[in-house]
Write a structure and sequence with these properties.
By secondary structure, the chain is of the alpha+beta class. The strands form 3 sheets. A 5-stranded antiparallel beta sheet has the order 3-4-9-6-7, with no helix packed on it. A two-stranded antiparallel ribbon has the order 1-2. A two-stranded antiparallel ribbon has the order 5-8. Helices cover 29% and strands 34% of the residues. It holds the Pfam family C1q.
Length: 160
């Protein structure tokens, strides 16, 4: 008789534990499922982001002497670094591979010139400019600029 009482007590205890573990509602399950889907989406987004190619180029003008016309594109024909291959050394045009915020920095130097002005142009819109007017043409004159702008991925090139 003592043995039967122990079995009943174990069964009652086991039933209570099972009930407390499974004591969730369908709205709790839906919330957990929703949160799990959101986390999976964010993880997939981060994984895709890490697979994108870097975008970086560094190019210089190797020629010591050349003449530019007004509103012409400066072609930095000697490419030192072109990660992602988005800068074209033949026409001086950079095409953004994806929407984002980009930073551009450039320096120009001149001698035997009365003025030097450069502009960063994105989709026919001047983003930034630098230079000097009324320069003493017998000395070197330099101008530098760094510009940060939002660029959309399009077929329209970015030119300087």
């Amino acid at each position: 008789m003592h043995l039967q009482l122990i079995l009943v007590l174990i069964c009652a205890t086991r039933h209570t534990l099972t009930k407390s573990i499974q004591n969730t509602t369908s709205s709790d399950e839906e919330l957990l499922q929703s949160r799990l889907e959101l986390l999976e989406t964010k993880i997939a987004s981060l994984e895709n982001e890490s697979k994108t190619q870097p975008v970086l180029f560094y190019a210089i003008v190797n020629s010591r002497s050349f003449t530019l016309n007004t509103d012409s594109t400066i072609v930095f024909e000697t490419v030192v670094i072109n990660e992602g291959d988005h800068y074209n050394k033949y026409d001086g045009v950079f095409v953004a591979p994806q929407d984002g915020i980009y930073m551009f920095s450039w320096t120009v130097s001149t001698i035997h010139s009365n003025w030097v002005m450069t502009e960063l142009v994105v989709e026919d819109r001047v983003i930034s400019s630098t230079g000097e007017k009324a320069v003493d043409s017998s000395v070197y004159s330099s101008a530098s600029m760094t510009a940060i702008c939002r660029v959309k991925r399009t077929n329209t090139p970015l030119s300087e």
